[in-house]
Here is the input.
Amino acid sequence: MIDDISVTPLKRIQHDKGDIYHAMKSSEDSFSSFGEAYFSSVNFADVKGWKKHSKMILNLIVPIGAVRFVAYDDRISSKTYQQFFDITISKENYCRLTIPHGLWLAFQGVGREFNLLLNIASIEHDPNESVSCELGDIKYNWDSM
Amino acid sequence: MIDDISVTPLKRIQHDKGDIYHAMKSSEDSFSSFGEAYFSSVNFADVKGWKKHSKMILNLIVPIGAVRFVAYDDRISSKTYQQFFDITISKENYCRLTIPHGLWLAFQGVGREFNLLLNIASIEHDPNESVSCELGDIKYNWDSM
Here is the structure.
């Protein structure tokens, strides 16, 4: 596990008329602040990334389909320098992934139908606090879904 | 329109690998505070409700399927006393519905497949700040979807 990433199992409450799925409470340890919530969909096998934030902390939940997240640590002083962290989350493996700022992140659609993530971000979107690079700039085997 | 309810159109940003859907920014007028975010699904034709919160402000977004929300105003001093407000939101009519505390709310699954709402609530879930009643206790024609 890369330092500072956390994976928090979330409750799914069964209900005859339709289940309830927890996402995040402000009292939880991995909550820092609320800046913005948005959804991002990702088509089967497509990969969005890489992107690295300098301020935003991401809280990622997948209510539909399945999404594979890969984080890469290029923080020279980190104990997990040059390590990758690879996790697939979905309704079946229902948890929240918290990604600190300073890590590279890319994500891939795993479900053949609709894949959707919710990001509960600590700050609002600001194009000046993130950097992007091409997928091939950080080598990773995306074929082994 | 019932007093204090607001409907905010939301952006959907097209992307070749999967679209992005706005939900809520902390700088927006209809944002008050972040207490909790959770999802609730509702099966086709089923209705969940009625429930009235004494503190929680609800911000409702529907990223999948379609959900019909009906609010009922029993606030004696309200200009819209005894009025109903009925709206169906979906990816096609993509907007955020803000429901103040003090109104009754029920919601129905309209899509034949998966219907999902996200509530970005102003406070955390607290069973002591809401009251519920049976669906039939507030008469409404739910058949006319």
User: Anything to note?
Assistant: The first strand of chain B starts at residue 6 and ends at 9. Chain B has a mean pLDDT of 96. The radius of gyration of chain B is 15 Å. The CA atoms of residues 50 and 133 of chain B lie 5 Å apart.
